[in-house]
Each structure stands twice: as structure tokens, then as C-alpha cells.
Fold these 2 entries.
Entry 1:
Amino acid sequence: MSSTSFTDLLASSGVDSYEQDEDFLGGFYPESTGSGLPKFKTSQPSPLPISQPSRNFAFSELLDSPLLLSSSHSLISPTTGAFPFQSDFPWQIQSQPQPPNAVSALQETYVVQDLQKKPVPKVPSYMVSRNSNDGYGWRKYGQKQVKKSENPRSYFKCTYPNCVSKKIVETASDGQITEIIYKGGHNHPKPEFTKRPSSGSGASSSAANARRMFNPSSVVSETHDQSENSSISFDYGDVDEEKEQPEIKRLKREGE
DNA sequence: AAGCTTTGACCTATA
DNA sequence: TTATAGGTCAAAGCT
């Protein structure tokens, strides 16, 4: 295992789709808040077997990423290519729609949770948390041991100027990521260059970048490292109608 | 030298 | 109103 790092593997075997998820996630919920940061709600996955709201399907289709909703398996299929062990991952996306009010849609939380323990090749958290393989730059700004979980949480901010996107990574004592929570959205396209040792793999065309921003597959990508109680939550504090193609709109505005 | 991580303290929200 | 928990700040050290 000389030079074949996890990253390399990802890069060479479908990382593209792998990254997409997070990108999509990050780019998906733009900070449409005009009054400061959104009020993020805690996305603690209640163990209910998901049921996806129709609207999810709608936007998922928009994003050209059926995997997010079609089925737990297809959900991770893109990554599966890279991680065979994943093929039997019984993940479930837990959509936790709030009561039927206008705000609920904005605060919907998506959780991808590994429902059963399995002997999966575990990937050290550091391999993932560094840049999350999402192409965005993340800077850790804090770590905290929270009561609700025995595992410490690491807090990351997007390093892109003016980008308020954040994510919280919960890591188990053995280094396994047990939960990832995304807050806010990237208000910028994915950087052309990422820190990853791009042996011709990390690099991606701007076109690809743009497309990735709408691909949810990474939701799983990060989780497949975990084997236990892993879950990823996405908190959109401000997802609204713009959910359709927020990035594009934003880009437009920026360009103006 | 710049950027990132670590870590304790501080601030804010909630019960 | 107070206590507790979660989240963020910022200085120091490291790569």
C-alpha cells in the first residue's frame, strides 16, 4: 500500500461521483438568508425509516441524481463502484420533513444512516475530514465533546471567502466518522484546484464542477467509511424555491 | 510565510 | 433565573 491512498482510490475509481454528493449538498442549499446565518436545527436522526417527500424527488431529478431517493442502494451506487463493500450497505435516507408549513421545507433535514453494522474496511477519519473529498476547502475551527454523543464533534468551515458553509463531523474514538452534518450551502462553485494529491485524478473541469454541485451522491460517500451508526445530516436552514438551481442563480448574480 | 489544527475559554440557546 | 449543552472564537503551535 505504498502510494495507494484512500484518496487515490477514490480518485481513480469514481471519486467523481463520490465528490459530487457533497458538492451538491454544499451547493444545494445556498445561503439565501438575507439576514445573517440561518438558524440551523439539529439534525439528529430519529430512527425512522424514511419516507421521502415528493419534493425531494423533484429536486433530485433536477440534480440528475436519482440515487438520493430512489432507493437505499442506488443511493450509494456511485460510490459502490469504488467501494465494493458498500454494495450491501443498507443505508436509508431519512427525510425528516417538518409539519406542513412554509418554513418546514426550509429546515428539512436529510440523514443518511447506516442501519446495520457490518465488517467494512474502515477508513481513518483523517482521510475524510481533511477536505472531505468534496473539492471544497474546509478549515477546522473547533472540536467539542457533546453529551448527546459519546464521540467528539469537529467543526469545519468552508475556506472560500464569504462562504458560510459549515459541516460538523462526529468521529468515534477509533477514528471512524459516525456522523456528518452539513450546514448552509456554498455560495460559490467548487474550486478548480483542490488540495488532494491529484495524480490527474483530483483535478476536474469547471464543467464537471458545476455539475457536481448538484449531485447528492457524496452524501453517502463520506459515510461509507463508517460502519457503525454512521449518518450524515444535511441541514438547510434556507432552502427555498431557489433550491432548484441556487448555484446557477448565485453565479449569475456574482457575475453581474 | 501561510494556512491549518488544536484547545481552552467564551457566547448563546434551550430546558 | 439558572444550569447545561452546543457552537464559535482566537491564540499558540505545527506542517
Entry 2:
Amino acid sequence: MTLPTTSDGTLPAESRGRGRRRRLVWTPTCFERNPHPGIATSERLAQDISIPEPWVQICFQNERSCQLRQHRWESRPWPGKHGPQEGRQKRTAVTGSQTALLLRAFEKDHFPGIAAREELARETGLPESRIQIWFQNRRARHRGQASSVPAQAGGLCNAAPGGCHPAP
DNA sequence: CTTCTAACCTAATCAGATC
DNA sequence: GATCTGATTAGGTTAGAAG
């Protein structure tokens, strides 16, 4: 497995457009023997290839998705989660002041882009990946409650087959 | 323009902390 | 034990880079 790079060779810094992280190019793959790496493995991998740990998680997420789909097409059983599970990420204790900050940001924008998340990470002292999880959980639990959810965020409800790999 | 896939999303679920 | 909430997963969409 090798280092991810952007097309121009620079590390992804700022998002563009709606605020996504700059795309990396993974070569060739980060999917190793264990499709469900624990936090320890993720961190070690991240360190080995000098990238943030959340990117490793995203890479594995996508890879699992693709592999699973392929297994379905080929009518092969997907091994799934077998064997001893590695430890999870330790539960982050979010303090009252951090929650207040996040809540204020959530009221302003339910879908903060990478720039906003990084700013929040700086302000709260929490990792950007935890901020993202916080917003995900917040949206999930306050959907319906909040009357004015911005109509946005990747048209989710229009489920359609598709995705990474085409049928074999 | 088309294809590929990293980045992102939801929904469901698991699990630690607190009461 | 119930509740709250952070973490993880499966499975989907979006958008940027490469061909």
C-alpha cells in the first residue's frame, strides 16, 4: 500500500465547492486482510502511510461496500464480521462547553463542510472526525423534531442501485 | 463526455456512561 | 434497567479526477 496523493501531488488542504475534503488518489488499495480493522489497526495504518486515521476508515468503508456488492453478484457468502473484534475507538467525552459550541454550529448549519468542521475542531479541541460523527448522530436523532432541516445532503431517499463497481 | 471511486450521507445498531 | 449519546456498520449518492 502506498501513499495517497492528489492529482497535483499536494496534500488535500481546503475543500472546494460545497466543502468536501479534497479527493485523494489511493494506490493501489488500502484493503488488507482484515476488512474490519479496529482503532488500533486503523491508527497504525494511518501512521504507516502518514495520513489521518479517519481517511483510513473511509477507505475501508468504501472497500467493504464494493467487496460486499461483488460477493452478492457472484452469490458468494460475505464473511462479514468474524473472529475476534478489535477494540473500538474509545468513547469521547464531550464536555458541556464543547456541546454548547457544537449545538450553536448545528443550529446554524446541519451540514457543515470541511472548513466549518475543521474550525469547530480547532475551537472545541476535538478531532475533526469526531465532529463529523457528532453531526451525524445529531441529525439522526433530531430528524423530524427539527422542522427546518435544509433540503440538502446528497439526495438520500432516492435509492438506486449503482455505486462503485459494475456487475462482473 | 464517460467512467471510476473518494467523500459523504442515512438508518440501524452496538456499547459506554450516567441516573 | 432505562436513557442518552458516541462509535460502527451496511448500503446508498455525489462530485472530482482520470481516461
